[in-house]
Amino acid sequence: MSAHSYAAQYRNTGLSSAVMEADPHRLVALLLAGACERIRLAEACMEHGDLARKGKAIGEVCAIIGHLNGSLDHEAGGEIAGSLSALYDYLQGRLIEANLHNDTAALRESLELLGEIESAWNAIPAEQRQRPPVVQEA
C-alpha cells in the first residue's frame, strides 16, 4: 500500500470517528465544512482541467446541501428555516450553473455564502446547541 493510500485510509478513519462521536450541532458543522472543502476542490479541478473530478466534487456539495435542506425543521425554525431553505435552493442552482458552464464566479459565490452559514452556525453559543425539547404542561 502506498503512503498516499495510508494517508487516505487514516483520513477516512479520522472522519468516521468524528462523525460517530459528534452531536447534531457538530454533524451540521462537519457537513458545512465538507461542502466548503469540496467547492474549493471543484475550483482547483476546474483550473487544472479535471472536469470529471470537478463534476464529482460539485455533485457531492449538492448532495450535502440537499441533506442540510431536507433536515431543516420548518415548524421549530419558522422564518429562519424558510430563509435557509431558499438559500440552499439558490446555492443548488448556482452550483449547477458552475458545473454546466465552468463558472468559477458561481463557485466562489457559493463558497462565500456557505462560509457565512458556517460562521453563523459555529457562532451559536454552546449552551444553546443542545437545548432540551420544550415540554408543555397540561
Sheet of most strands: none
SSE order: HHHHHH
Uncertain segments are none
How many whole angstroms does the radius of gyration measure?
A: 17 Å
Q: What percent of residues are in strands?
A: under 5%
Shape: globular
Mean pLDDT, as a whole number? 86
Count of individual beta strands: 0
Question: Which class do the helix and strand fractions yield?
Answer: mainly alpha
Instruction: Count helical runs.
Output: 6
Helix content: over 70%
Q: N-to-C terminal Cα separation, in Å?
A: 63 Å
Helix and strand topology:
Layout: H1 3-21, H2 24-47, H3 51-70, H4 74-101, H5 104-122, H6 126-129
Helix pairs in contact: 2-3, 2-5, 3-4, 4-5
Describe the structure.
The protein has helices at residues 3-21, 24-47, 51-70, 74-101, 104-122, 126-129. It is built from six helices and no strands. It is globular, with a radius of gyration of 17 Å. Helix 2 packs antiparallel against helix 3 and helix 2 (24-47) packs antiparallel against helix 5 (104-122). By secondary structure, it is mainly alpha-helical. The longest helix has 28 residues, at 74-101.
